[in-house]
Design a protein that fits this description.
Helices cover 39% and strands 21% of the residues. It contains 16 helices and 23 strands.
Length: 497
């Protein structure tokens, strides 16, 4: 290879056909426009060695400075150390800086509950971004060595997972600050280029094992498809590109629909920003959502789910289908999603929200507070306090309807009372015949949003609700002409103090 690559020779028409192909792909997607630096991930395998070689030979055309990052995953022992030494030596010959990181990926996976594949990817991109940030003031991108075979494998993998159109479109040539210059090439072209250039590369023995899902696709499924049609990889990539075109078109329609719902999509960074009542919550009219074309409907749901779940990694079409069922569901119905997202029905709206720690507390309910029925007292809970007084019924008693002050027949209370929030099985007696109504139904009738029901203070006797604050008291405890003693309850919201 010589001590360095002569970029001046590169300018003098010494470009290999493969390099010319890559240069055309780079220019097609404007990968290095307004960029002075490029962080290049190099493992030592054929793909990444090909990438750094091409970029070194083209950097005079592109006007970029290269910075290599190598990750030793500390899985393969001496073999991994040998790969690291090879990459560092290659960078010295090319005159390129090399940043090597030793990261115990297996321990990282165990500590964080990831697969080894997931942990490895996270480690790599964290390292890439660490170096990128050093140069971001002058413009810097991360170049990785994905190729057409990777696209085909990804499409097959995502089809098996049920990710829908978003998964079928495969791998994007440019995404935020990540570029993929080799995505227009297949693996045979890459290896052929290295053979012509006389450049060796490392072979990871684990790539020959079928312990990882992607390797199973690479070694078993894709070869069978090529057996059926030798252009299978090309056809899958063409399908992925077509799917991406369809999605881009549909995304424009989705954007307009979501704008009509008060949700704005930034075209510049593909980020989504809601204008709804609180951060992490997005609301759409379910009748309008249901009226959309099926593709638009599903894409809108996927985008909103991705927002509240922190991405679409664990989201499949089954989750989208479950959300779709909510279009016909009653108020209060909802589902929890991977990544901490929740979708629920609130009358004519479907709410997409991110569950917070406080939401989890609401779901658990506050710890119940026992009420001493022998004396007056004050009882505190998170969102307010209850004042209790016991006295003989006066001749004159104002029984006018007050939301936060109620008078009950003390002698009709048999069980110990508690101040708490709702639990499964709660009910309230609604007439003199003893008819019961589930507490959730009471909330539905009162149009209390599902995500607010866990905040409502309750005075309860076991599962029977004596008073749902702000709503009504149970029929069994109302003051009558025969009432001798009064249980006077007054609730003060925390915001009123």
């Amino acid at each position: 290879m010589g001590d360095s690559i002569n970029t001046e020779d590169t300018r003098k028409n010494s470009i290999d056909p493969f390099e010319r192909q890559v240069l055309g792909y780079i220019r097609k997607y404007n990968m290095f426009d307004n960029v002075k630096h490029c962080v290049c991930g190099v493992s030592g395998g054929a793909d990444s060695v090909s990438l750094i070689t091409v970029l070194v030979r083209l950097c005079g055309y592109l006007g970029i400075e290269l910075h290599v990052v190598h990750i030793n995953h500390m899985i393969r022992g001496a073999a991994a150390d040998s790969d690291q030494e090879y990459v560092e030596e290659l960078c010295r010959k090319y005159g390129v800086s090399c940043n090597s990181y030793n990261i115990d990926v297996q321990t990282m996976a165990s500590d964080r509950g990831f697969t080894v594949e997931e942990a490895g990817r996270l480690a790599r991109y964290d390292a890439f971004d660490t170096v990128r940030r050093q140069y971001e003031g002058e413009g810097c991108v991360i170049a990785v060595a994905h190729n057409r075979n990777d696209v085909a494998e990804t499409v097959i993998f995502n089809m098996a997972r049920g990710t829908g159109m978003g998964g079928i479109k495969g791998i994007a040539p440019v995404r935020e600050n990540i570029v993929r210059p080799l995505l227009g090439c297949d693996r045979s072209e890459i290896e052929g280029y290295l053979d012509r250039m006389g450049i060796p590369y490392c072979t990871d023995a684990t790539n020959n094992e079928d312990d990882y899902t992607r390797n199973k696709i690479r070694h078993k499924i894709l070869p069978l498809m090529v057996e059926i049609n030798e252009q299978a990889v090309e056809h899958i990539c063409d399908m992925a590109e077509l799917a991406a075109d369809y999605e881009r078109f549909a995304s424009g329609v989705v954007e307009e629909f979501l704008k009509s719902q008060g949700i704005d999509i930034s075209q510049e960074n593909r980020g989504w920003t809601g204008t709804e009542s609180r951060c992490g919550e997005y609301s759409v009219d379910r009748g309008t959502l249901f009226a959309q074309n099926k593709l638009i409907r599903e894409l809108a749901i996927r985008q909103l789910v991705g927002l509240v779940c922190g991405g679409l990694k664990d989201i499949g079409r089954n989750h989208v289908a479950e959300v779709m069922k909510l279009c016909d569901a009653e108020t209060g119905a909802g589902i929890d999603l991977p990544g901490g997202g929740r979708v629920y029905v609130q009358y004519d709206r479907i709410i997409f929200s991110t569950k917070t720690d406080s939401d989890t507390e609401k779901e658990r309910g506050c710890d119940p507070v026992d009420i001493d029925m022998t004396r007056d007292g004050v009882y505190e809970m998170e969102n307010g306090r209850l004042t209790v007084r016991i006295y003989d019924r006066p001749k004159m008693l104002d029984l006018s309807k007050k939301e936060c002050t109620k008078y009950l027949d003390y002698d009709r209370i048999i069980q110990c009372l508690q101040l708490r929030t709702m639990k499964n099985g709660d009910y309230i007696v609604v007439n003199s015949a003893g008819s019961r109504k589930k507490l959730n139904r009471l909330f539905t009738d009162a149009k209390i949003p599902a995500d607010r029901r866990g905040e409502i203070p309750l005075v309860a006797a076991g599962s029977e609700i004596v008073w749902a604050v702000g709503l009504r008291i149970g029929e069994n405890y109302k003051v009558t002409d025969n009432t001798r003693r009064i249980l006077h309850l007054e609730f003060e919201n925390a915001g009123q103090r």
